[in-house]
Amino acid sequence: MQTTFLDTSIEFLKGVGTHRAELLRKELNVYTFKDLLQFYPFRYVDKTKFYKVKDVNSDLAYVQLRGKIVGIKLQGEKRKLRCVATFLDDTGKLELIWFQGAKWFADNIQPNGTSEYVVFGKPAEFKGKFNIAHPEIDPVSAENTTLASSLQAVYNSTEKLKQRASLDSKGIARLIKSMLSMPNYRIDETLSESIIGRYQMMSRAEAMKQIHFPQNAEMLKKAEFRLKFEELFFIQLKLLKQKGLRETTTRGYVFSQVGDFFNTFYNHHLPFQLTNAQKRVIKEIRMDMGNGKQMNRLLQGDVGSGKTLVALMNMLIAMDNGFQTCLMAPTEILANQHFQTISELLAEQNIVVGLLTGSKKTKHRNALHAQLQSGEMHILIGTHALLEDEVKFKNLGLVVIDEQHRFGVAQRAKMWAKNIQPPHVLIMSATPIPRTLAMTLYGDLDVSTIDEMPPGRKAIQTIHRFDTHRDRVFGFMREQIALGRQIYVVYPLIKESEKMDYKDLMDGYESIARAFPAPGYQVSIVHGQMKAEAKDFEMQRFVKGETHIMVATTVIEVGVNVPNASVMVIESAERFGLSQLHQLRGRVGRGAEQSYCILMTSFKLSAEGRLRMDTMVRTNDGFEIAEVDLKLRGPGDMAGTTQSGVLDLAIADLAKDAQLLYAARNLVAELLTDDINLTKPENAAIAAQYQRSMKTGTNWSRIS
Ligand code: ADP
Ligand code: MG
Questions:
Q1: Domain identity same for 41 and 73
Q2: Is the pLDDT of residue 533 over 90?
């Protein structure tokens, strides 16, 4: 493909050059003209008008006001000194507050009620009154009362860019302006006329101009709509095209019958009644494995909703059709647990279940390989050791991947190669994820959702306690142990502070061992630095009820199932993300007893930390928690999604633009139904952009 204007290297832009280009690449990931064009402002400043005090509300990002100061005072002690001024215009009063330079403001602002000032800042509400913290304030002058003709874009810059290349927000705006005014600057349309017409969208060229240099708020809104829509549209196009392609080119094994394995289990060994949601989902999966297409399906459900059983029953169907199956888990502990659960459930049936993890000895492996290749083994459970090339099946029909987020797409693909035709793939997600995220992250998969919990579960009670109340928490733990319950105490372990965390864990373990002395109390400990056998041994002691307390790092986060454990104490809970907290909490509440989750934090909590604790205390609904998490952290930082370049959106926001995403996806589906290969002339612009996005490094390909 010919290099187009937008592919030009950034150093060739007037005013850039090699030095600045290098910094732009390093600091902002801006390599080409296109990258700069898509380096969108993160907010806008509105100095196009003066607001009146009566029109101020806290939804406004920034307001510019004109009026007088009718009172000023210094409040507070030395270090916490603040200056509070009362601002007045002809409609009302509000407070201006400065914490930094308080004295300077108190000395220099005239509170005489006659000198006029221009004030600019972000309004906030406090006890029903409005104030502005740290506003800009200047005496009225010819300059600052001449209103700006347009909104001003503000760009994120970095210290290095500012200091070494004098590229602050204004500098970046200048570069963009110069690019937009180059004689050969040209922006091609990427959507079809019918789509543009249907949504009365701005053209792409106009949108690019307006997003950087908006004429007014209304034009800016239209530009944002256009660019967000387009971004989501092409992501969905890529996903749905991939899906379509796979469905037309990849055939799947047809599981046409339900036989003895399934029926015997269902009629004689099912330990409890399936929930309606489980029944529905089992059926969805079964239908999908019988239609001749290869299944690629995501199984979603809250922690404890019973995904394992659903997977198992579909594995039995695969076996009824003469196929082998495997179940891959992200950790050794979890693989062991699955092996045990499934072996017990199938104990009465003539089914061979194997376990393969990294710590298995060669002899065991060799025997296992032979059983797999002869077809004698029906089910293989394990960790990513299953991906190894030596692991060959006679006839693999269904792969179940538990807690997907720990595995990458490449690993998924590796399982495909384990039979002549790719086996069916069922992915179980570790935590509920918001719909917008699922549609993007797993947009090429079909989705089944278990939206109902097994009956008889008592809602877990969640309590937030400060560290200073540890003695009371210990007292509560003793009561619970006296009732025959078991307890988890979990410590954070984060790569960057591993050493410190490890010390915290050991200190914590010691203080617990002191507070719960043997022989009356038995305490287990499990952490990442232990050998697999030692971990397993400790885990088993707890599973068997030989120990009362399990002190652990987050290695127990996923999947572990000990129904008698009814208390989860999470230390330094403020250091965990919401989905992780929810996962951990899901380790309890699996038996018939009332369960508790105790979140321990220090007294000092950030506003966000407090919101996380409050959310946990308020609700047990994993989907609701996931939504809050998405709002707080954005999709890129949510558990397990970090490797996914798909979520690096330039302008759309999966937390806020849900409706837009649904619309874009529907539109793409409609488009592909009508013109699957995008060959119709009216879709030429879309096809061209699709080709470009596949070939060149926009968002996803740069990352993957
Ligand atoms: P998750 O969806 O988090 O993987 P699991 O599959 O581990 O959940 O199931 C959680 C617990 O619920 C297990 O102890 C399992 O035996 C139990 N369970 C699953 N389905 C049902 C059901 N229909 N009725 C009662 N208990 C169930
Ligand atoms: Mg599970």
A1: no
A2: no
Cβ 70 under 6 angstroms from ligand 1: no
The CB of 306 under 6 Å from ligand 1? The reply is: yes
Burial 306-336 (b: 16+ CB within 10 A, else e): bbbbbbbbbbbbbbbbebbbbbbbbbbbbbb
Average pLDDT, integer, range 541-547: 93
Asked if 377 and 496 sit in the same domain, the reply is no
pLDDT at 221: 94
Q: How far is the CA of 308 from the centre of ligand 1 (A)?
A: 7
User: What CATH number should be reported for the domain holding residue 106?
Assistant: 2.40.50.140
Q: Which residues sit opposite 93 in a β-bridge?
A: 88
Number of folded domains in the chain? 4
Within 619-657, residue ranges assigned H as helices are 622-633
- Would you say residue 331 lies in a domain? yes
pLDDT digits over 211-258, tens only? 999 988 899 999 999 999 999 999 999 999 988 888 888 899 999 999
Q: Is residue 175 located within the same domain as residue 124? A: no
Distance (Å, whole) CA 549 – CA 538: 11
Q: Ligand 2 mean position to 576 CA, how many Å?
A: 20
> What does the alpha-carbon distance between residue 580 and residue 574 come to, in Å, rounded to a whole number?
11
Same domain, 39 and 121: no
Ligand 1 atom having least distance to the Cα of 341: 16
User: 10 Å Cβ neighbour count for 604?
Assistant: 8
What letter does residue 568 receive in the DSSP assignment? Answer: E
* 152 DSSP β-pair partners: 45
Nearest CA to ligand 1 atom 5: 306
Could you give the C-alpha distances from 430 to 491, 584, 586, 626, in angstroms and in order? Answer: 20, 11, 11, 12
Which ligand 1 atom is the nearest neighbour of the CA of 272?
24
Q: Residue 173: which domain range?
A: 5-45+157-180
Q: How far apart are CA 620 and CA 385, in angstroms?
A: 34
Does one domain contain both 547 and 586?
A: yes
The CATH number of the domain where 545 resides is what? 3.40.50.300
In a domain, 675, yes or no: no
pLDDT tens digits, one per residue of 110-164: 998 889 999 999 898 887 889 999 999 999 988 888 888 788 899 999 999 999 9
Using one digit for the tens of pLDDT, what is the confidence trace for 456-497? 888 999 999 999 999 999 999 999 999 999 999 999 887 677
282 vs 609: CA distance, rounded Å: 39
The model's pTM: 0.77
Q: How far is the CA of 275 from the centre of ligand 1 (A)?
A: 10
Give the gyration radius of the chain's Cα atoms.
30
Q: Assess contact for 329 and 335: CB atoms under 8 A.
A: yes
Would you state the torsion angle of the CA atoms of residues 532, 534, 536, 537, taken in this order, to the nearest 10 degrees? 160
Q: Which of 416, 450, 484 is the last residue of a domain?
A: 450
Residues 395 and 269 in one domain: yes
Find the helix packing angle between 607-618 and 578-585, rounded to 10°: 30
322 and 467 part of one domain: no
C-alpha pair distances (Å), 439 with each of 448, 460, 489, 677:
12, 30, 35, 22
Query: Is there a single domain that holds both residue 25 and residue 74?
Result: no
Q: Is residue 600 a part of any domain in this protein? A: yes
Q: Is omega for the bond preceding 135 within 30 degrees of 0, making it cis?
A: no
**611, 628 Cβ separation under 8 angstroms:** yes
Q: Given 450, 472, 493, which residue is the final one in a domain?
A: 450
**100 in any annotated domain:** yes
Place of tokens 């459930």: 345
What's the pLDDT band for 636 if we cut at 50, 70, 90?
A: low
CATH, residue 16: 1.10.150
Distance of CA 307 from the midpoint of ligand 1 (Å): 7
